[in-house]
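Raw record, unedited: DUF1320 domain-containing protein
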Amino acid sequence: MAYATVQDMIERFGERALIDATRTLNQDRDVMDVIKINGVLERASAAVDSYLQRRYAVPVRPVQLPVVDATCALARYALCQLDDSEPALQIQTGRKDALKWLSDIGSGAATLDATAVPDKSDTWSRFQARPTSIRGDGLW
């Protein structure tokens, strides 16, 4: 399930930009390929989940605006790569910022108001416990 919709993409980037990014040579000049946009939104949402799943139950509910923004930025970048052209600097920066924010979520530097997944594994913790005594007569 996608975190963003075609309408979210239109609100952020404009209809003309989406038409230009999805139009092929044999299509009408004013028709956007909604199927292509929905496909990149699904893939972008899966990428977002891959960052969030360590700390949150995915899919995240309710969907928060920063998650929608990150999904749209990743989807826009993917749309611009479909025609083998280099995305504009603004689009590259949007993707980079989205990935940085998602990394911050994964590391705990940023949080969401969502259901957290408690990690009960033996291989990962938020802190490393020290032994109470090294020599047996005190902490140090």
